[in-house]
Write a structure and sequence with these properties.
homodimer, about 120 residues, 3-stranded mixed β-sheet, DNA-binding
Chain lengths: ~120, ~120
DNA sequence: ATTATTATCAGTAATAATTACTATTAATAA
DNA sequence: TTATTAATAGTAATTATTACTGATAATAAT
């Protein structure tokens, strides 16, 4: 009845994304999965990453005009180095309280901090 | 000595962006400014918006694969409706405290909340 | 003012990222 | 097994953005 099918491609994409702590682009996921599955198509990777993120199985962020994907959907923010592009996860010890307006139904919060990493700070 | 020049194009772009509370794309800014300045070029709009945001004269956000610009650089977050694309400013009454790692030098914080607006909530 | 310098511009071409298309394949149902 | 059709590989098309180039105009120098 569930017209969604399990495929080797989907499994491989998810497995790779969950195996890394980075935030790869579709292109990077493609290159990595291609090693095990040489004729997977880039379109397949794009389609499934988009589908996964729509279903909240993975996270998605947009940095410098590129979409990036995150295998970790636990609540966390990101640090982005504006110079070298480094992306790092930010886990917060204390809960952050936000007094957002009641008129919206919230689905997710995305907290991104921009700056310089140690290496790029001068 | 300052090799940056004041131009009518720059002034018009800034003036438009500061006159609206929306978060227009470069394309939208272009269309608007074009009304007063019919042969301004799209490239000029892109170049200057990018330059302004680099110099922190305006804000920039990335939503659904598009860059959007914000004439308001006061500290605030954004709500984005995942269905209709509405972008709304979020001003917080209480200061938000974040315990981010010391290893980074912070330049800016971007807080985006995703969900459904009243109209799109079913 | 007039002229010189060159940042910026308009217009267009090129690139990069992503999405759409289509015949084929393979996951699930019958 | 066989039938059904979602998903795929491969490729073409689209969209957003950036790069290029000769002309223009903002500022500096005379």
């Amino acid at each position: 009845m569930s017209d969604i099918r399990q495929t080797k491609q989907k499994a491989a994409i998810l497995e790779y994304l969950r195996s890394v702590k980075t935030h790869p682009t579709a292109e990077i996921v493609y290159s990595a999965v291609k090693k095990e599955m040489p004729n997977i198509s880039l379109g397949t990777v794009y389609r499934n990453l988009e589908e996964f993120s729509k279903n909240e199985i993975i996270g998605k962020l947009e940095v410098a005009g590129r979409k990036r994907f995150d295998g970790d959907i636990s609540v966390h923010g990101h640090f982005i180095c504006e110079k070298c592009g480094l992306i790092d996860d930010l886990f917060f010890k204390k809960k952050i309280k936000i007094d957002f307006p009641k008129k919206y139904s919230i689905n997710g919060i995305d907290l991104t901090i921009k700056g310089r990493c140690k290496k790029c700070e001068k």
